[in-house]
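protien #1 (seq + structre)
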Amino acid sequence: MSLVLIVFGAALVSLAMFNKVPQFVPGRAPAPRTGGGVATAQRAATPPRLRLVDARLTEQGRAVFTAIGGSALIIAFFLALSGL
């Protein structure tokens, strides 16, 4: 339980600190080959990836994420001390 709270709290606090969230960018399929001459350039396929984009949080939103994430980290700390 404490590990789940640590991951949850760390994610919220890092979101508030860096104001970035991951965004999925789908890959691009390779262009189909048509007839083709000798020197035709082919577009390479790109794999799907994640990129970081702005979260556009307000100061109040950052404060909420910091408070909830910090509280989750404190609860995880005390749960770990108690042995649960």
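ok now protien #2
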Amino acid sequence: MNRVLLFAAFSVMVLGSCNDKKDPDVSRKPGLLAVNDIDQYTPPPAGTVVTADSMAVNDDPLNHFTFTVKIKTNEYSNKGTYSIAASFGPNDADGMFTMPRGGGHLKPILQKGKERYTYIIGFEYQHKFHEYYRVTGSKGAIEIKNIKAYTFQ
């Protein structure tokens, strides 16, 4: 008799937990972002400028310097790695960055930062800009620094 009651109680719990509503977030682990068809991006051929911007350097009006950042595709861009070319007056810097793990399908976006001589490299995901790297220029250095981390499934 106890087995029958135990089986009946278990059946009620299992049937009670069934729900026709499918919640897509149930299968996601915290901190992971789901891949969305809207956010898919196929990079152009290697050497193509994806995005670029520049601003005048007002600290040295005699020389009319600019701070420029360009993001270009390379042979690894189909896996999410892009080249950066930055210049601050006569100083040049080159580097590479990789989109978040599982986010090789996202297009890099460049926006002006809040601080002076700063650009933010990020990406749009579900119609929202996500900051990823900061590029800062100064008279003596150009710095590219990771500022946030993301993972996609």
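Residues 1-32 have pLDDT under 50 and may be disordered.
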